[in-house]
Structures are given as C-alpha cells and as structure tokens.
Amino acid sequence: MEKIFNNTEVAFVLKNNKELKRAHFLFKMISNRALVKIGSSLANFAIKSHLPVQGIIRATVFDHFCGGISETDCLKVVDRMYTKGVSSVLDYSVEGKETEDQFDAALNMTLKTIAFAKERQAIPFAVFKPTGFGRFFLFEKKGEKLPFTQSEQQEWDRILERFEIACKAAFDKDVFLLIDAEHSWMQDAADDIVLEMMRKYNKEKAIIFNTVQMYRWDRLDFTKKLHQTAKTEGFHVGLKVVRGAYMEIERSRAAENGYTSPICIDKNATDDNFDAAVTYMMENLDSMALFAGTHNESSSYMLMELMSKHNIHHNDSRMWFGQLYGMSDNISYNLADHDYNVAKYLPFGPVNEVMPYLIRRAEENTSVAGQTNRELSLIETEIKRRKG
Predict the structure, then answer these.
(1) Which CATH architecture has domain 66-350?
(2) Each residue's pLDDT tens digit, 11-20
(3) Which of 13, 18, 23, 320 could form a disulfide with 341 if both were Cys (CB 3.0 to 4.6 A apart)?
C-alpha cells in the first residue's frame, strides 16, 4: 500500500502561511498539559465573568477547530474544503443543556442542518447527540430499567418524538444522519432508540447511523449482534466507528462505583478492537455502511487495503472516512486526493457555548501525546518545505 499520509503539500494546501503558523502555535500549547489546564480554567472564568475575550478565542482556537457561529457562517469553510474533495458534517457543538426549550432548539437546529445538507452536495451527513434531545438522567434511568414518574414518562415520550422527527426528516430528504455515542451508563437507552429508527428507516439502505466507541471492550459483540438482528429482520446497519471520547471519566466512575471498567485494558486492545470492528463491517458491506471516524494512520491504511481486497470503489457511498476539523489534515486531504469519501466534523455554535466542546477537545489531545506530536511534525515539515 502506497504511503500517502506524509504528503504535507496536499495536507495543508488550504492553509496559508499565517494559518499554518497559528496551527503550529496551538498544537505547541496543547502539547503542554499544564498550559491546557490553566488555559481552560482562564477561558471558563473569562466567559462566565462576561469578559471581552470572545474575539481572542474566535481568532485562535475557535477558528482552527470550528467552522463558525452558525450554519451559514460555516459555508465559507464548507465550500473551501469541498474544492479539494473533503465533505463536511455540520455539528452543532453546544453541550450540557437541561430544559425542554433547549432540547426543542437542538431538534430545530438538527432539522435545519438536515435541510441544509439536502441542498448541498458538500454536506452529506447531519448529526446530533442523544442528550441534545433530552436529559442525561432520563437516559441513565431508562438504561437501568428503573420506573419513571408520570412527568418523567412524558419527558421521555418527548425525547422519542424528537428522535422520530429528526430521523424521518433525514429519511424524507435522503440525508445520512449520524447519532453520536456518549457515556456508557446512558448508552443502552440511546442504542435501543436508534435500533428502532434503523428498523424503520434503513430498509433500503443505511440512512440512520449509530456510533460505537471501540475503547469499550463490549462493542465488537454489540456490532455483530446488531448485524445479525438486521439480517434477520431485513434492515441495513449504519455505524460510525470511533475509538472513544470519555475514557478518563469512564475509568474513574467505574473505580468509584466498584464495577468493572467498560474500557479496554490499554490502547493496543482498543486499536485491535477498532480494527476488528471495521474489518467485520467491510466484510459485510452488502448490509452495512461504515463511517470510520479515525485519526489513526495505520487503521486508515488497513481500511484502504480492505477496500482494495473486496473490490470496493474508493467513492462507494457505504464507506466514509471521517476526521475532526483542524486535525489530521494529512489523512483527510490525502485520502480525498485519491478519491476516497472523506468528511470533516465541523463544529459550530456561539463562541461561549462551544467552549466546553473546545476544552474537552484540547484535553483529549493532551492525553494522546502521539497525536499532537504528529501534528507538530507535519506542520513543521510543511513550513520547511515552503521556505524551500
């Protein structure tokens, strides 16, 4: 397999020298755990105290990792990336809401992005988080099979209704819909809802995609069982396969509450789990569709080899590679340059409301030292290349 991910000219083709230097500065900062901690605390304090820092945040970390403050504000980035064959997933990254009005607003934003995607070839997917549509506590309680009060049951019914409205809109408009995974102790309830949506709307092809986080040791079995159910009942499985986003929280909660951690014993086990899941899906692409959310070069090469082995065209609509905006451009743009389907997750929302997402992203990058070092190395290589 030709090694394509070292081509920094293709990787950073859309970044001018100023943007490249900003990226270098940001990843230098992110590589320092103490700085990330201090910077996160200061940013939180400044926003809560209504200090005039939004301009600084917007010009640095926000513009590097986010598409804009609204879906229309993202269009410049969407159109620019698409000139190089890289698609977008508009991700309304406002987290931690608790009221019915906020959940209705999240549904409306999801419907807006679905409609937006229908009109633009550059946006093939829409996305939402389960807890964007209802309280975390209710997903947790439902997953534990605890009885609801009457008012909680009414709330839960509204959650089911929001899922139904969003999934039907995606089906009617023929737009792929990704539903993100969250913490393990609320995920069972979300999985049950998404299964019902797949049964209903994935009869002809995968429109609704659930997400499996492969740092969970039980997700390979989950994937295989879901596929068997789909074959028996006659629907297609859509899955976004990722390594995972909440490892430290999962491990510490398991330790505090005295139950077996749902997380794989180490990174190698997670990598093996991820590769086994995507290999299984590639072998069953007649009834499955895969969105491989990965920043791992080895897994990406493996997927390319599997596509070649199974005679799957680079642009087969059942197989997508996905990365986060502002990261792993060497994977995204080089894949697109070789005609693979690639989509960047493009977070957007008001600057102060997207900060929890950005802080979580910075902390994740800090904990994966190899990722940040790789980004820095590639940026430095491109800076040197441009200097000649």
Answers:
(1) Alpha-Beta Barrel (3.20)
(2) 999 999 999 9
(3) 320
